[in-house]
Amino acid sequence: MKRYGWQMGTAYSLFLTLLLVDAYLANRSTEGLTEAQERIAHTWEVRTTLRDTQAQFEKSISAGRGYVLLDDVTNIQTMEEAQQAMNQDIDRLNQLVVDNPRQLANIVKLRVIIEDQVRVVAEAVRHKQTLGVRWKADTARAFTTRAFSSKNYITALMASLNEMNEEEKKLSEARHREAKNYERQTRLTIFGAAGIACVALTATFTLAYLMLRERLRGEVVMRQANQALEVRVGERTASLQQANEHLQVANKELEAFSYTVSHDLRAPLRHMVGFANLLEKKSGLLLDEPAHRYLLLIKEAGLRAGRLIDDLLSFSRMSRAELSHSRVSMQDVVSRICAELEDEKPQQQIHFEVMPLPSILGDSILLNQVWHNLLENAVKYSSRQAISHIKVGYRKTAAELEFFVRDNGVGFDMAHAEKLFGVFQRLHETEDFEGTGIGLVTVRRIIVRHGGRTWAESQPGEGATFYFSLPLERLG
Amino acid sequence: MKIILLVEDNSNDIELALEALAEEAFTERIIVVKDGQQALDFLHRTGSHADREPGNPILVMLDLKLPRVDGLEVLRRVKNDSTLKSIPVVMFTGSGEQSDLQTSYRLGVNAYVVKPVDFDEYSNALRVIGNFWTETNAAPPDPVPS
């Protein structure tokens, strides 16, 4: 689509320019045509006026002659009217040819001839009027002949008129040619405009068609892609549903499994420990040192097995349970656990430093478990210090809330950090620090289910810091 | 003399329990039955226990997994019976499962105690339970006034 952008721009500018130029040319040729036509009309007017002048001239002559020869008095008025008309014509002619020096000269000549003739005729008429009947017929006739028949005047006039007419004719022809030119130009510009418009229109529509076709093609492709996507989504959903069903079956089996473990595994352990105790109690006096020791070991092994089972069971239960949702005040939870730990271990000097902590949306019981495990660990692994310093805090990053528990205990080697959060992995001997090693797995499991991460940092002998993060959306 | 009815199928558990309570005053009162049906017979004074002394036990300690009639069924029948439902029933079982806990309480159990693996804790639990229901607690009237 983009490539049509500048093409359209260029085409548009080009056609616009052409049309404007064409319009300008059309305007000019039309003006020219109009002028030419006006000039042609002008020529026609001159020639018409010339003809009229001639007509009036002849009219005045014949009127004068009519009076002189035939005594018709009305002729005088006719003659005078004709003369007036003639004068008007000549004035008009003067106006019309004002820019043509040759014609102007001709008019001067014409005026002279006509004035002359008018004078002669007027004289004759005057004679006639004064002398009337007394004017001798032959004198009158002779006069008349001179006045009215003199070829000089007529010839001269005709010549003059002709000359003017010819001149005008020539002009007329020239102007006609000019007009034809302009007409041709005008026609050309009009066709030109039409042509440009056609081309422009064709180009525009072609472009539009191409763009539309491309768009439609695009839509078809997208529709196909969408359909393909929906098919895939359908397949995915189906396989997800299947996976879900499998999971649910697996869950049910796990439930049945832990139920069995719960009942059937713990009983023998209980018996083992119980009878070892009873043996100790009833036959203790009969036993020597090693025997006592063995009994103790038997009891401890049994108890340990029992704790392992309990931890495993609670871990399994926690993994399967639905996450509940409520507002958990991390501050309250931590404060309470710290107080409990202090009470449980009166012989240990523990100093807790707890930063203000936010409230979180999550599973209250499970989050309690997280803090309990982490804080209990911190207390346990710093029990060898004179004073246990345990610091709890958090910070906000772009997308997460990072919580930490720092202790000043024995620490651990970072090389083995991977194993920390694994089931039953322990980085210290049981003799040194008791525990089943499931605390951190539980923490990880719970935090992961809340959408967060767990990790730890430490140096041997310099304490350890355990971190867990929760998504920022959980801030409540 | 008020009876404590212990319903337990596992001989080891029976032995441990009796040993744990050997020094308690109420130990004489303990009667053991090894399956649910016997428990019901005892309580209703039917079957093999038809000839026992009349009078409700002061406490029933009940395990969950029992042959013939299981613990939950015994609990249900006891708590649905107008003459028996006032008897305190304490679940004493190896199961810590939420489902068992919820069902038991729904059926009206008076207490639910998970048997500890540690013998000292186990003994202590038994002693506390026994002492509470026989000494501390005021026993329900027997027979129950209608």
Query: Mind summarizing the main beta sheet of chain B?
Result: 5 strands, parallel
* Distinct helical segment count of chain A: 10
Total strands of chain B = 5
Adjacency order of strands in the biggest sheet of chain A: 2-4-5-7-6
Kindly estimate the percentage of residues of chain B that lie in beta strands according to DSSP: 5-15%
Structural class of chain A: alpha+beta
Spatial gap, N to C terminus of chain A: 48 Å
Element order, helices and strands of chain B?
EHEHEHEHEH
Mean pLDDT of chain B: 90
Question: Overall 3D geometry of chain A?
Answer: rod-shaped
Described by the principal axes of the CA atoms, the overall outline of chain B is globular
Which blocks of ≥5 consecutive residues of chain B have pLDDT under 50?
none
Tally of alpha and pi helices of chain B: 5
First-residue to last-residue Cα separation of chain B: 23 Å
What fraction, in percent, of the residue positions of chain A are helical? over 70%
Strand content of chain A: 5-15%
Q: Could you estimate the helical fraction of the residues of chain B in percent? A: 25-40%
Structural class of chain B: alpha/beta
Enumerate the strands of the largest sheet of chain B in spatial order, edge to edge or round the barrel. Answer: 2-1-3-4-5
Q: Largest contact between protein chains?
A: A-B, 24 and 22 residues
Number of strands of chain A: 7
Structure description:
The complex is a heterodimer of chains A (476) and B (146). Helices cover 73% and strands 9% of the residues of chain A. Chain A has 476 residues and is an alpha+beta fold. Chain A has a five-stranded mixed sheet with strand order 2-4-5-7-6. In chain A, helix 1 (2-70) runs antiparallel to helix 4 (137-149), helix 3 packs antiparallel against helix 4 and helix 8 (364-381) runs antiparallel to helix 10 (439-449). The mean pLDDT of chain A is 85. Chain B has 146 residues and is α/β, with parallel strands linked by helices. Chain B is built from five helices and five strands. A five-stranded parallel sheet of chain B has the order 2-1-3-4-5, sandwiched between helices. In chain B, helix 4 links the parallel strand 4 and strand 5. Chain B is globular. The chains are: A alpha+beta (476), B alpha/beta (146). The A-B interface holds A 258-259, 262-263, 266-267, 269-271, 273-278, 299, 302-303, 305-307, 310, 313, 317 and B 10, 12-13, 16, 19-20, 64-65, 93-99, 115-120, 122.
